[in-house]
């Protein structure tokens, strides 16, 4: 079943969309603030997002930036703002379509179908090679080629402690989220503030200790020499960057 995340601070809009979408066999999640939405999306990745820009705690364009840090799920903006500058800003940030309020339900559904045909989250999930490791973003699995596991994230018995099998390296949900954001932006510098807002949510902009700790954990599990990282690089004073090998990204097909 397709999961739709509705982000709007107007209860009547959420209620109307929930009724109409569920009647058409969509699973509906809803949030009335940016913080709630980003946290909900991280826990339950949606197939499509319907987003109002006028949220109480953060502008909707910033929510788009946060979501685009790790997901390619289509985003349809549903907003009362009609000026062209706002529309351009939202589309440039990564929105797939823009529908103004008041809106017709048939038009919104048609727009949803159109953007869903163009892209899906699963189609954008590649397999990425880090040396002798293969990161499968669709399966959320890190496997060492040849099945020879080391101590990184394992219990010493040839498995990762969760029954995933030889060669698998276990990552925590937060480690996965941080790694996925970096891998989906190869070669791009991501500031500490961007990563904190995307992975931990609003209110964590100064929690740089969290970021340093989880980056160290990822390097310990994934880098051949964590003290001299090859792929997960630090840009001093700015943030972090994933630097891929030339043939690192392979199609998931």
What does this entry look like structurally?
It is a single chain. 36% of the residues lie in helices and 19% in strands. It is an alpha/beta fold and 253 residues long. It folds into 2 domains: 3-122, Rossmann fold; 125-250, Orthogonal Bundle (Arc Repressor Mutant, subunit A). The strands form 3 sheets. A 5-stranded parallel sheet has the order 2-1-3-4-5, sandwiched between helices. The protein has a 5-stranded antiparallel sheet with strand order 9-8-7-6-13, with no helix packed on it. Strands 10-12-11 form a 3-stranded antiparallel sheet. The longest helix has 15 residues, at 208-222. The chain starts with a strand and ends with a strand.
The tally of beta strands, per DSSP, is 13
How many helix segments? 8
Structural category is alpha/beta
- What is the alpha-carbon Rg in Å? 19 Å
**CATH architecture verdict of the largest domain:** Orthogonal Bundle
CATH topology of the largest domain: Arc Repressor Mutant, subunit A
The ordered string of helix (H) and strand (E) elements is EHEHEHEHEHEEEEHEHHEEE
Question: Structurally, how many domains make up the residues?
Answer: 2
Major sheet: 5 strands, parallel
Oligomer: single chain
